[in-house]
Write a structure and sequence with these properties.
mainly alpha, 434 Repressor (Amino-terminal Domain), 5 helices, 0% strand, 58% helix
């Protein structure tokens, strides 16, 4: 089951490409793509994305709706 999240919306609002976010997080482009499509990911992966987007880890619930 896919969950909705706000990763794509926030990434695009900051004018960051998927490739740039992948580079900043150390994750693959494919992983970023899957997460933006709503596939689940580990807490550590969420942390990397949140911090790479310049947010605080406390924003996790707002970013990932969990």
């Amino acid at each position: 089951m896919q969950n909705t999240n706000n990763v794509k919306r926030v990434r695009e609002s900051k004018l960051i490409s998927k490739a740039e976010l992948a580079r900043k997080t150390g994750l693959s482009f494919q992983t970023i793509d899957r997460i933006e499509k709503g596939y689940p990911c580990r807490l550590d992966t969420k942390r990397k994305i949140i911090l790479a987007l310049g947010l605080k880890f406390g924003d996790r619930k707002r970013m990932f709706n969990d």
